[in-house]
């Protein structure tokens, strides 16, 4: 059994994430080696007002963003979606995506990435 409380752990500064704006606060909660299932990572990321995760593209994987607090916008494949607490976004394989904090308080998200089986994108 593995147990961690990500809300009590110190966060690291992460500047220019995927060429985004500003300095985010970030914690790698779990790594791929923590799982038997095929999950690459689980990250907790906090975007202060005005900061962003820049628009970027992945390979044959899916990345989930789960919004815990704050408000912002998620851009995926040319479309912009409002982001608020409780929203879950599934970024598709080979798609482009980025996240901006457009609100006045911190935007907190959990980010999970999992590879797709070969030939299934």
Written description of the protein model:
There is one protein chain. The protein is mainly β and 121 residues long. It has a single domain, classed as Jelly Rolls, CATH 2.60.120.10. The chain has no helices and 10 strands. The protein has strands at 12-15, 23-31, 41-47, 52-57, 61-69, 72-76, 79-83, 88-91, 96-101, 107-115. The protein is globular. The N and C termini lie far apart (32 Å). The relative contact order is 0.25.
Give a short overview.
With 121 residues, the chain is mainly beta.
- Counting DSSP H or I runs of 4 or more residues, the number of helices is 0
Please bin the fraction of helical residues: under 10%
Number of strands: 10
State the secondary-structure class: mainly beta
Please state the average pLDDT score: 94
Low-confidence stretches: none
Which strands sit side by side, in order, in the main sheet? 1-2-3-10-5-8
Q: What's the CATH topology name?
A: Jelly Rolls
Q: What is the domain tally?
A: 1
What Rg is obtained from the alpha carbons, in whole angstroms?
A: 14 Å
Tertiary shape: globular
* Fraction in beta strands: over 45%
Domain Cupin type-2: 45-112
InterPro entries: Cupin_2, GPI/OXD, RmlC-like_jellyroll, RmlC_Cupin_sf
Protein name: Cupin domain-containing protein
GO molecular function: metal ion binding
């Amino acid at each position: 059994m593995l147990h961690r409380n990500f809300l009590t752990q110190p966060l690291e500064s992460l500047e220019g994430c995927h060429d985004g704006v500003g300095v985010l606060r970030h914690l790698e909660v779990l790594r791929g080696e923590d799982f038997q299932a095929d999950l690459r990572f689980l990250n907790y990321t906090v975007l202060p007002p005005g900061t962003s995760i820049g628009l970027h593209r992945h390979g044959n994987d899916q990345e989930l963003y789960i919004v815990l607090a704050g408000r912002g916008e998620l851009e995926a494949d040319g479309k912009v979606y409002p982001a608020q607490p409780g929203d879950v976004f599934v970024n598709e394989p080979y798609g482009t995506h980025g996240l901006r904090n457009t609100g006045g308080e911190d935007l907190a998200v959990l980010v999970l990435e999992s590879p797709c089986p070969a030939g299934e994108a």
